[in-house]
């Protein structure tokens, strides 16, 4: 019998699921941040904990200032989420094997029931996109009704991060399989891409050259953040052009 | 003081007393474990064996199993469709909660028996599509009254079956043993 760790995949570089972000059309409206929080049962940490830097967002809009006053210019808005690295720096440091690489979907997984909360992965992530549950944050009565039943409600002491909406991936794959076909391009997308009013975020299969996301990724203009670290990120950014 | 207590325990009376305490603790533990293995109390002592022996298919009352994640518990409207034609329903004490629920419009609050934790995302559909029969996981319903859970639904139990069914198909094995298939 062949164990799963003996199966060698060549798709770690290309990945399976990928995302492109067009920074020219991103207005920084934060619709993706809100949609992500709704889809993935992300807690609202409140003002005080947020001040301690404990806010939990799986996607955030980064922006930087260039130049000296008074010639200050803002860089394009930069949505930043887990880059689902092919060689992720978070994975080898986990002592509990809670953050593992999915061979089937080529994603970085966070297995909440294995996580013991060492926070080593977050310290080792060059993108700083992991969020830690410092408390069991309460959801007052009407808010509990909007929890997504397809996503685990995390508890205190557990690390979490963007999953590329793996619950939507599974649902689309399940629907496709029940109808005896492959998942089609554009059949589903992540919550952030769905909410983006400017269509700055495109999601799909990057290993299939005919998909929209693969065509944008492979047009040669994109950059991958901190690719020089050898993390093989699967999110491609575009700007100025 | 403590020395005195230990000396007292060594007397015949003390030995009997400690024996009683020991037996009480053991039986409390046994009772506690036994309690965890019992099916939860249901609003109606629903006799699965009677219904299955009439020839009613599992999927007639739990049709969600063939379509999606949850098998579903039938609403009382589905019960009533048959039961309003059955004379016994009119004055049977066991069926009184059903009659009351239908006439008053309140829901019967069934208690799920076969449950997995929140961090496990189980989907019935692929299991039915793969040719699994209900009784392979849920036990023989021709023998039980209120549904019982014959399995400890542990991850090892899931994985044993997944690895066995994947066989030599590498791609299938990778998919079926991937953490992200169930945990997200």
- The helix/strand series of chain B, from N terminus to C terminus, equals HHHHHHHHHHHHH
CATH class call of chain A:
Alpha Beta
What's the CATH topology name of chain A?
Alpha-Beta Plaits
User: How many DSSP helices of chain B?
Assistant: 13
Shape, principal axes of CA atoms of chain B: flat
Question: What percentage of residues of chain B falls in helices of 4 or more residues?
Answer: 55-70%
Overall shape of chain A: it is: globular
Q: Structural class, judged by helices and strands of chain A?
A: alpha+beta
N/C terminus separation of chain B: 57 Å
The residue ranges of chain B in which pLDDT falls below 50 over 5 or more consecutive positions are none
Main sheet characteristics of chain A: 3 strands, mixed
In terms of per-residue confidence, which ranges of chain A show pLDDT below 50 for 5 or more consecutive residues? 1-9
- Listing every helix as H and every strand as E from the N terminus to the C terminus, the arrangement of chain A reads EHHEEEEHEHEHHEHE
What is the subunit organization of this protein?
heterodimer
Walk me through what this model shows.
The complex is a heterodimer of chains A (241) and B (184). Chain A is of the alpha+beta class and 241 residues long. Chain A contains seven helices and nine strands; from the N terminus they run βααββββαβαβααβαβ. Chain A has one domain (14-238): Alpha-Beta Plaits (2-Layer Sandwich), CATH 3.30.70.20. The longest helix of chain A has 13 residues, at 166-178. Chain A is globular, with a radius of gyration of 18 Å. The termini of chain A are far apart. Chain B is flat and about 70 Å long. Chain B is an all-alpha fold. Chain B has a domain at 2-36. The mean pLDDT of chain B is 89. Chain B contains 13 helices and no strands.
List key phrases describing it.
heterodimer; A: 241 residues; alpha+beta; Alpha-Beta Plaits; 3-stranded mixed sheet; two-stranded antiparallel ribbon; 7 helices; 9 strands; 20% helix; 13% strand; globular; disordered N terminus; B: 184 residues; mainly alpha; 13 helices; 56% helix; flat
């Amino acid at each position: 019998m062949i164990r799963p760790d003996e199966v060698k995949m060549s798709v770690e570089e290309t990945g399976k699921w990928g995302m492109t972000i067009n920074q020219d059309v991103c207005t920084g409206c934060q619709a993706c941040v809100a949609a992500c929080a709704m889809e993935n049962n992300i807690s609202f940490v409140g003002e005080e904990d947020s001040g301690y830097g404990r806010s939990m967002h799986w996607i955030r809009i980064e922006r930087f200032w260039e130049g000296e006053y008074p010639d200050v210019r803002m860089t394009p808005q930069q949505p930043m989420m887990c880059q689902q690295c092919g060689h992720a720096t978070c994975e080898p440091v986990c002592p509990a094997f809670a953050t593992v690489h999915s061979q089937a979907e080529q994603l970085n997984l966070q297995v909440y029931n294995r996580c013991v909360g060492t926070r080593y992965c977050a310290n080792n992530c060059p993108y700083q996109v992991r969020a830690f549950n410092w408390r069991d944050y309460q959801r007052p009565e009407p808010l509990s009704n909007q929890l997504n039943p397809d996503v685990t409600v995390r508890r205190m002491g557990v690390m979490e991060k963007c999953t590329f909406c793996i619950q939507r991936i599974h649902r689309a794959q399940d629907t496709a399989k029940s109808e005896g076909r492959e998942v089609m391009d554009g059949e589903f997308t992540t919550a952030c891409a769905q909410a983006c009013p400017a269509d700055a975020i495109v999601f799909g299969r990057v290993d299939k050259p005919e998909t929209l996301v693969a065509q944008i990724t492979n047009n040669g203009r994109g950059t991958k953040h901190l690719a020089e670290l050898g993390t093989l990120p699967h999110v491609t950014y575009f700007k100025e052009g | 003081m403590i020395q005195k207590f230990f000396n007292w325990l060594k007397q015949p009376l003390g030995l009997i007393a400690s024996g009683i305490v020991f037996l009480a603790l053991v039986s409390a533990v046994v009772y506690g474990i036994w309690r965890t293995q019992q099916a939860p109390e249901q609003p109606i002592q629903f006799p699965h064996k009677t219904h299955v022996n009439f020839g009613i298919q599992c999927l007639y009352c739990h049709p969600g199993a063939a379509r999606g994640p949850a098998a579903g518990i039938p609403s009382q409207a589905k019960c009533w469709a048959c039961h309003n034609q059955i004379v016994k329903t009119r004055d049977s004490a066991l069926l009184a909660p059903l009659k009351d629920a239908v006439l008053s419009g309140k829901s019967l609050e069934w208690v799920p028996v076969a449950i997995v934790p929140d961090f496990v995302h189980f989907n019935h559909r692929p299991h039915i599509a793969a040719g699994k029969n209900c009784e392979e996981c849920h036990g023989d319903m021709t023998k039980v009254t209120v549904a019982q859970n014959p399995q400890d639904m542990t991850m090892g139990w899931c994985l044993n079956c997944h690895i066995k069914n994947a066989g030599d198909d590498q791609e299938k094995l990778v998919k079926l043993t991937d953490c992200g298939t169930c945990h997200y």
